[in-house]
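Entry for flavin-adenine dinucleotide complex. Fields follow.
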Amino acid sequence: MTDFAWDVAIIGAGVAGCIAAIALAPSCRVLLLDRQKEPPARIGECLPAAARRILEPLGLFGELTRPDSPHRRALGMQSYWGSSRLQINDDLRNPDGFGFHLDRPAFERFLREQAAAVGATFRRPVRFQKAESDGETVHLQLHDEGEGREQKVRAGYVIDAGGRAAPFAKHQTGARIHLDRLTACWATIPNTDVRAMGTIHAAENGWWYSAPLPNGRRVLAYQSDSDLIDSALHREADSFLAKVGREPVLAQWINPQKPELFLHGIVPAGSSRLPQPAGRLWAAVGDAACAFDPLSSQGMFHAMATAMQLCDLLKKSQRFKNGGVSSRAAVQKAYTAQIEQIWQRYCRHRLLFYGLEQRFTASPFWQRRHAARYETEMVCK
Ligand SMILES: Cc1cc2nc3c(=O)[nH]c(=O)nc-3n(C[C@H](O)[C@H](O)[C@H](O)COP(=O)(O)OP(=O)(O)OC[C@H]3O[C@@H](n4cnc5c(N)ncnc54)[C@H](O)[C@@H]3O)c2cc1C
């Protein structure tokens, strides 16, 4: 049975999906769904200061600064990149103020609550399975993971905020385009360093990233290409500890008697995008549209910004008032151009930053990133 028709169905209640729901729900009927009942422990907790520009107008910024907030102010980033000398990029001169080290599940739980509070209907754990379109509306087949039954819903417009998997959009556009196969192997340890700064550290076959978490622990992540990472690293805590131990800057954070390391495993971290970020009745936002290398530390900001860019275009168009065909085409064209611009700028920055590290020229990881063909996109099934 097909249930109620929605103006917009949003697949995925991560940062991108929730921001889109919060922006749209006051003006139209929004269904937000996620396959996960609760936000999972996710790597990626450094929120750049510029996020304030999006959170403040939506009335969400106070959550980060209230006295009993679970999130912590970040003072900036320190890096060992291109040289073994420490470089500090602090937020003191940043016109947007300070960034934050988020309690990521708490932040996403807050965004989900806000989406429901402004009128979005939130269903979870509900998985999007497939869709068909009659040219005017999209019929979505969902699976309620809690009740174990199929559901069908109809929507005038679909926003794919399903992360790198792009569960809806991948069926519309075909194979995702990858620039590389970067993966991140991550763990947490107790935090013994009082400095509220993230750390980037280049290594022979990849690079490290670390940041304090608000819960008294510290995240440690090693990034390299999937074919260059030893599989023991993400399966055995001892292998991970041994690798950390070979980098003095990181080893100082480990208590050899009591490392208390919790290995979370491996996640994709490469640069990739959809061949096309939008169609007539749909658009992808956040990682679904294009996913960045964590070196950029911009993933959440990009998720929020693309969601807002799309919602502004949708609200400006007459789509929800008279279903005008030309306005659908205009949204598609304008949004596609915006994503293309973001992607081109990102690609230039990525080349520039990897180019700054020239100490490991014999290593395949760095050779790949310095070679001209690094710009060439791989189309992967
Ligand atoms: C190693 C690493 C470190 C990072 N560090 C940072 C950082 O410090 N700062 C930063 O800003 N960014 C960081 N990022 C990137 C950041 O985490 C992502 O860019 C961000 O999570 C993207 O948000 P999103 O909402 O687009 O997608 P996601 O966070 O992936 O959310 C997608 C949601 O869709 C749901 N979903 C998927 N498929 C379905 C389906 N079929 N049906 C229903 N629901 C579905 C998922 O359950 C999920 O909740 C990092 C990424 C990596 C890999």
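NOTE: Residues 11-17, 33-36, 43-47, 127-128, 161-163, 165, 167, 184, 221, 267, 269, 286-288, 294, 297-301, 303 surround flavin-adenine dinucleotide (CB under 6 Å).
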